[in-house]
Write a structure and sequence with these properties.
- By secondary structure, the protein is of the alpha/beta class.
- It has a single domain, classed as Vaccinia Virus protein VP39 (Rossmann fold).
- About 25% of the residues lie in helices and about 25% in strands.
- It is built from seven helices and nine strands, in the order ββββαβααβββαβααα.
- The chain has a six-stranded mixed β-sheet with strand order 1-5-7-6-8-9. A three-stranded mixed β-sheet has the order 3-2-4.
- Strand 6 and strand 7 form a beta hairpin.
- The longest helix is centred in the last third of the chain and has 26 residues.
- The protein is globular and about 55 Å long.
Length: about 260
């Protein structure tokens, strides 16, 4: 007989994980703000709508930022995670900046895959996959380099006619699966400015404003070469995506004003 797994319906952010794991694949729920805060500050936790997590790095009501901390806390030493996250996690200030610095210090955040709009989240929302390894904390930051793969610039997918398929990511898989990441070669260079695989060192990332992970280097042909515009259907979808992205941002602002 096939035994079905036990499924509990509960808010996984409220309490720490009791049993650690060595692999996490996660696409946290979409939506920036919650109706409550998760905090590592005991005094704040005494207030209404605040929940205490000693294993968190900082206080936040942002769901994605909370799940990043939650997932890292779930991992055993040498545990690995791949987390799908929207762009705001890469550049948002405040708690976002604190969490990005902690990721560099306390995990080996070795790879970020940049994806086009509408792949994991709603139309207009750009997503990324962060790949990291948890290791014992040392005196120096555990992340030495971050390898970025830009599968976004000049890439167009639609939900029906140009869907994302495995073969679209074969080159990324080949780059990612290098046996020795320290000996991996960048596909980008001054001689090949269109290379999609590029390494940035810890020192290069940490000096960016707010430790911004929103890194891009490829030239967007749509803004420069008017003779190479995408098909009308793709162009129309990009306009819709941009408008919906703006609407999503305004909705989050309104939510914040209504708190």
């Amino acid at each position: 007989m096939i035994k079905t797994p036990d499924i509990n319906i509960e808010d996984s952010l409220i309490n720490p994980i009791e049993q650690k794991t060595n692999i996490v694949l996660a696409n946290p729920p979409f939506g920036k703000s919650s109706s409550y805060y998760i905090t590592n500050d005991k005094k704040l936790a005494e207030q209404d709508n605040y929940f205490y997590r000693s294993d968190f790095w900082t206080t936040t009501s942002n769901k994605q930022l909370a799940f990043v901390q939650h997932i890292v806390s779930m991992l055993e030493d040498k545990g690995r995670a791949a987390i799908v996250l929207p762009d705001n996690v890469l550049f948002e200030g405040g708690a976002g900046e604190i969490i990005r610095k902690k990721l560099l210090e306390e995990t080996n955040l070795h790879t970020i895959l940049r994806l086009p709009t509408g792949i994991f989240y709603a139309n207009g929302v750009k997503s990324n996959v962060l790949f990291l390894e948890k290791k014992k904390k040392g005196r120096k930051p555990l992340t030495k380099d971050i390898w970025f793969y830009d599968y976004r610039t000049n890439i167009h997918h639609t939900l029906k006619k140009q869907v994302l398929k495995y073969e679209n990511l074969i080159q990324f898989v080949e780059c990612y699966l290098s046996k020795d990441r320290n000996k991996t070669s960048e596909s980008w260079s001054t001689d090949n400015p269109n290379g999609r695989f590029r390494k940035y060192s810890y020192d290069e990332i940490i000096v960016r404003d707010k430790t911004n992970f929103d890194v891009f280097w490829l030239r967007d042909d749509n803004y420069i070469d008017l003779d190479s515009l995408p098909e009308p259907e793709v162009l129309a979808q990009e306009i819709i995506d941009s408008l919906e992205s703006a609407l999503n941002s305004f909705r989050e602002v309104v939510k914040g004003l209504n708190k």
